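Continuing the batch. This is chain 6 of the set; chains 1 through 5 are on the previous pages. Same settings as before, nothing changed between runs. Recording input and output for traceability.
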Amino acid sequence: MTVVHLTDRTPQVSGAEMVAALVPPPQFDGATFETYRADPAYPSQQDAKDVLIGFSRGGAPVERSGLFRRAKKAPEMKPGVYLDGGFGVGKTHLLAAIYHAMPARRKYFGSFIEYTALVGALGYQKTVELFRGADLLCIDEFELDDPGDTMVMTRLIGELVPTGTKLAATSNTPPNALGEGRFAAQDFLREIHTMAASFQTIRIDGTDYRQRAIDGHSIALDDGAYAQALADAGARGAVSDDEFSAFVTHLAAVHPSRYLRLIDGVDTIGLRGVAQLQDQSAALRFVAFVDRAYDAQIPIRATGETLDGVFAPEMLSGGYRKKYLRAISRLNALTNS
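Output for chain 6:
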């Protein structure tokens, strides 16, 4: 059995490697509009799908099926589409479907964190030069942790849109409400509204599909079951084994853009002694890690507190509430997989 300790890893990623990684996560390699299953109980899902098919075709009308089939006229579209909705309604699937469907010569797909990290690695002007002339930029999880990062992305968008770059983004918060409950500086709010002018916001309602498939909560194992789970997983591939508090501390020493490299080659993640997080910075880093583990679809096995209770109650009522709830949804899926 191959056992690694994530706390021993300090991955380094070059700018070129970061650019090469700007493609949809493996779980969305085959994501298409056809494989997006719109819930008939929420018509906004099918409506969003139709609009996005038109967007990926450059605004072409979408054919509707039925006895009296008629092309649904696509509205005049802004250079960007912004998918707003709760977690687990398929926004990232639709974002990847746009990426795969658009016949673009140069297109990129990455999380907000990956794009801002690239600016940090290459510098702002070199990043602009890199993306100038790109046909499509897909930005997943456009959520606000730092107003400076959002201003950088706003400037980047402002330079690319006039050159013909199309934009597609997802978030749990519409673009004119980013930062709500977190920051209130007027100059920052002006930046947000400027960015919002580039996007047509498309609301997607629905329930979390991950919860529909899971009965209950995150699974916490006792020591014996944990050891057996890692042994079973180790018979099939590499597993990691780390003490939770030490692991959370280690995350502070690794840039979030490198979290995917942190779990490179790992088939199952093991965390011992999970305890509720009280520090918001540590909690947000853990959220970013969970996002990358979920992208890679790596199961998590854990002891201690259940992972759906890892965020302190006051965090769940604060400005990052939606972010924490999305992480809980993903943790439930990964501990049950």
